[in-house]
Amino acid sequence: MSEPMLRPMWLSGEKEYSVEELEANASFTASLKKSAKEFRRGAALASVLPLCTIFKDAKFKDICSYDVYKMESLSLYIDACIECLWLMSVQDPPMHITCLRKGDNYEPAHYGMFLTRGKAVEYTVWPAVFLYKNGPLVSKGYVKLK
Q: Which of 21, 97, 85 lies closest to 55, judged by CA?
């Protein structure tokens, strides 16, 4: 007799299926992936508040010396950013954000100019947002040129 945790079996009607049998069944695999994606999307909103707390308590202190909990407007802005980015990341496929680095060539199809004209990027003011990686552009970004 095998250990139940080492050799899991699932019941369907009267028949028991092993992991190997279920993995070989394409319709089961597709159904399982669909259910997992729906669960991830459904649980996404519930996980925003804990993610915001984790970021402010663990990561923000490494980046900045401000006490985020004493600055309500900053705390609200961080919460809104994390919610937006998290919901973008749980889409299927996930949305994609790009930033140009200093010295990169200006891409007018994906970025607008901020304040000055030029050919080389000095820094990204706002990232470009795509529906998915290499997908259609949702929102143009902005770059400062030199």
A: 85
Whether residue 83 contacts residue 50, with contact meaning beta carbons closer than 8 Å, is answered with no
| Cβ contact 44:87 at 8 Å | yes
Backbone angles phi, psi at 33, to 5 degrees: -65, -40
CA 108/CA 46 separation, integer angstroms: 38
Q: Phi and psi at residue 90, in whole multiples of 5°?
A: -90, 0
Instruction: Let me know: does 130 contact 117? Beta carbons within 8 Å.
Output: no
* Cβ(51)–Cβ(87) below 8 Å: no
Written as tens digits, the pLDDT of the chain (146 aa) is 455 455 555 555 667 777 777 777 777 778 778 888 888 888 899 999 999 999 999 888 888 888 888 999 999 999 999 999 999 999 889 999 999 999 999 989 999 999 988 889 999 999 999 999 999 999 999 999 98
Element (H, E) at 113: strand 111-113
